[in-house]
Amino acid sequence: MARDYIKVGLSNVGSYQVSGQPWVSGGIDASSLLTINFPYVTGWVMVRNNTGDACKIGFSKKGATGKNYFTVGSGSATERLEVKVTEMHFVGSSDVDVMAGLTNIPRGTINNPSNSPAGTNWSGSYVSNNWSPGI
């Protein structure tokens, strides 16, 4: 399958070289499972957990509620995560801040079956050379 490196998309380097459009949301209550849907594909993301227990963060619901997540402790923040995602899932804290740099790549670039088996974000789990479906 030939890739089109000229138009905006996942394989277009220029889409990631420019400064990202800022996206910020603070004081998010993720005491129970919460999904954030970004309007475009991210170039990077940072998360801060201001209070409460450790916050589980996944790139799919399956990841956040299963075994494919990472945690951010109370009063802690991630470094800048260079990830291209359209959604993130949080659970465990009542006060989370999220900041992202958005590319100009439409969500549909990732959210389709040819790039993601479930037609949505990547699950964060890797199974025998194929990403497992994340829902």
Quote the CATH topology. Jelly Rolls
**Number of structurally distinct domains:** 1
Order of neighbouring strands in the sheet with most strands: 1-8-3-6
Distance between the termini: 26 Å
Q: Which key phrases capture this entry?
A:
four-stranded antiparallel β-sheet, mainly beta, 135 residues, 2 helices, elongated, Jelly Rolls, single chain, 10 strands
Written overview of the protein:
- The chain has 135 residues and is mostly beta strands.
- It has a single domain, classed as Jelly Rolls (Sandwich).
- Helices cover 7% and strands 41% of the residues.
- The protein has two helices and ten strands; from the N terminus they run H-E-E-E-E-H-E-E-E-E-E-E.
- The strands form three sheets. The protein has a four-stranded antiparallel β-sheet with strand order 1-8-3-6, with no helix packed on it. Strands 2-7-4-5 form a four-stranded antiparallel β-sheet. A two-stranded antiparallel sheet has the order 9-10.
Write the layout of secondary structure elements.
Elements (H helix, E strand, L loop, with lengths): L13 H4 L3 E10 L3 E4 L2 E10 L5 E4 L2 H5 L4 E3 L3 E2 L9 E5 L1 E14 L19 E2 L2 E2 L4
Antiparallel strand pairs: 1-8, 2-7, 3-6, 3-8, 4-5, 4-7, 9-10
Summarize the structure.
By secondary structure, the chain is mostly beta strands. The chain has 2 helices and 10 strands.
